From TrEMBL:
Gene3D superfamilies: Low-density Lipoprotein Receptor (4.10.400.10), SRCR-like domain (3.10.250.10). SUPFAM superfamilies: LDL receptor-like module, SRCR-like. This is Deleted in malignant brain tumors 1 protein. Transmembrane segments: none annotated. GO terms for molecular function: serine-type peptidase activity. Residues 1-85, 126-224, 235-336, 348-452, 459-553 form the SRCR domain. GO terms for biological process: proteolysis. Keywords: Disulfide bond, Glycoprotein, Hydrolase, Protease, Receptor, Repeat, Serine protease, Signal. Disulfide bonds join C56-C66, C91-C109, C103-C118, C193-C203, C305-C315, C376-C440, C420-C430, C522-C532. The lineage of its organism: Eukaryota, Metazoa, Porifera, Demospongiae, Heteroscleromorpha. It comes from the Eukaryota. InterPro entries: LDL_receptor-like_sf, LDrepeatLR_classA_rpt, SRCR, SRCR-like_dom_sf. The keyword Hydrolase applies.
Amino acid sequence: MLSKCCEQFLACGYFTAVYQRLNDEVVCKELGYPRATEVTYFGRGTGAVWLSYVSCTGLESSLDLCVHGGWGRTSFCGRAGVICEAYDFVCASGGGVSQYLVCDGVGDCPDSSDEERCVYLPETPVRLVGGGGPHEGRVEIYYQGQWGTVCDDEWGFVEAGVVCRQLGYAGVWFPAVGAAYGEGTGVIWDVNCRGFESSLDVCLHNSWGSHNCDHSQDAGAYCQDTKPDTGPRPVRLVNGSTEFEGRVEIQLQGRWGSVCGDGWDQRDAAVVCRQLGFASEGAEPLLSAYYGEGYGPIILDDVECTGLETYLTNCPSSGYYQHNCNRSQDVGVRCSSHVPESEFSNPIRLVVNSTTLSVHEGTIEIYYNHKWNTICDENWDFPDALVACRMLGFRTVAQVYAGAFFGAGHQNILLSNMSCTGTEHELIECRHNGYFNNSCIHRLHDAGVSCTNDSAAPVRLAGGRVQHEGRVEIYLQGEWGTVCGWTLNDANVACRQLDYRSATTTGYFGAGPADILLQVSCAGSEGSLDLCPHRGWGVHSCRERETAGVVCAG
């Protein structure tokens, strides 16, 4: 791990000016500074020269993730140095963060002091004008009763992406400059975004109307005209003393955020409990950050459920990220712990031993035709379980279970011979044999799953000739290491973690320069290598020639 100082002697300086600046941007970001201000030389260091021929794109989170010539594989070379931009905000517990990270909805200081005393105002409206459709055009922003344009100084994919997401599109195809969509009128704004902002006015900008542009430099954007999924969004309860209570958080665009308490009542709480598979009757709404303040963005406000909806996002609200709240207004709920006898269309839940609800693992039950029904474990595998976990609001699968591992379920077996791709929103969208068309037995064949939100230890392939093959390496505590104890089951888990369909074969791609970190024994149904049974990090009985390798497919 890099030490927090503004000069580094870690890498040789054989780069063009462009590549050197990108490398230094990565160094400064890894140290917690906003950016590099100057590439310079501080003399010879006293330690070893670890890296040479470093080539970063600027997007990496740490220097060791950049392409390089290998650890310790250096000839004589100059020492690289950099001056980073200083902290803009000093954390109460020490250290600091960039001004871009202050009041961004995420606690970046260890004590989250960068998110205190923040006031969150409704976002400033934007629109696209002069294009061939609503998804493209000149960017205009509404301020103080008039529409104005944006200068194309610093305008690029990052800024255009913020506009497109603010307008509800999935992303941006390309930014436009030089008044490509015609010249606008009114005041001109000058902005510089980092990419995480939810709206254009959150980006760094000069005071409104302060610029050195004219309307021949009006910026535009061409957005991806397919809008993102507007279906049910995952919901979870956080910081409660039991799994049946907590702060309400909803997932949108890969981030978890909270719900504001304006208008929050028992009907809203009932919908949350129902969506989570709990009984809606007796749901208790809790206000004023009863379960603590969240750290993500405030996603919903002015929620007005009737109490009959299946999902929280079915309820009327002010819209995503549209609010006038702060985190002291985060809502919570307390649900009943008993299994509901009847609820509404197509929810999913996990049950242990037929009577006890579980949040993250159990026998899968689907509500259909006023009854809870199970799924047969015939061909039940990881993609099927992944759809179930995402329906329940989890990131991924910890383990796939068959044979009524958590006990037999209720009523009838609804689905069998499941064949999901893993991209479906609900299990009933997957290919299957049809409703109740099976000869399975509850106590022998009910399918189950264990879900998780844990972030998997990163995995990569190295030393191969093509991208989908190589030595399997896993990342732990700042360093990459190798894996051993290898079978096709282990290889399938590694390939799925890397977003391939499966492994075609195992192989040997050299021992590599890193130590063996993990000896695994996977069943083949795990969601990531670190979820497989193993002896412990760094504990193994392997030789170097047993270092794991794989060829992935799909």
